[in-house]
Amino acid sequence: MANNQRYFIELAYDGTSYHGWQVQQNALSVQELLNKALSTLLRQPIETIGCGRTDTGVHAKEYFAHFDGPQPTEGTVNLRGLNALLPHDIAIKSIIPVHADAHARFDATLRSYEYHIHFEKNPFLNGYSWLLRDRPNLELMNKAAAIIMEYIDFSCFSKSNTQVKTNNCKIAKAVWEQTENGIMFKISADRFLRNMVRAIVGTLLLVGKGEMQPEEIRDIIESKNRSNAGMSVPACGLYLTEVKYSYL
User: Which site from 13, 90, 145, 212 is most exposed, i.e. has the minimal number of CB atoms within 10 Å?
Assistant: First the structure.
C-alpha cells in the first residue's frame, strides 16, 4: 500500500471473555476483533502489532498497538466509528499518527502492572480482583519485593519453554499498597516475561502468609528454577496499567 501512515492506537479492555491480546486459532482474542474492526472501517486488510502479550483473562487499562493505514485525512480513522464496531469490553481511547518506524512492542521503555486482592466476598469485584480468605503481612511482602528489585534474571518467575532471547528485566518499582477493598501489588519494568507478575505475586504471598522468610526469595531467584517459586495467581486480578514511549 503506497503512502501509508503508521498509527499508534491506545485502547483498554476487560480481558474476561478473551484468550489474551494475541490472535490464536480457535480462541477469541482482542487483537482479532481489533483487526476486524479496523479492516471494516478502513475497507482494507489491517494487521495490528501489540505492545506485548497478555494472558487469558488479564485486563488492560492502557494498551498500545500500531498499524499501517491510509494517510490521515478528515474522518479516515474515526474514533467513534471504530468504537461502534467493537464490543462493550474493548474501548479505543486515541489514534495517533507516528513516524514510519515506530513500534508498539520494541519501543516501549516501561510497562506497569497492578494485581488486586480483596478479602470479603463482593459480587462487584468478582472477575476483577482475587478473593483471599486471610490477610497476608504487607510489611514482610514489601521487604521481599525490595529484594526482587536487586536482581535482573527472573527465569524462576517465567513460564517454562518460552522462546525469548533473555530472561533479564530491569524492575523500576515493586510495592504492595492498601486499597479500599484490600491490597494491590504495583510493579514496573522495562519488560516482563510470560506469567512473571502472577508468579511474583504468588511467591510474595508465601512470605505474607509466613510460609517463608523475605530473604528466602534470594534462593528462589538465584536458582533460576520456576518450580522453586510460588504458584501463579489467577488472571482476574491482573491489569496492565501503563506503557511508556519516549515519543508519546
Answer: 212
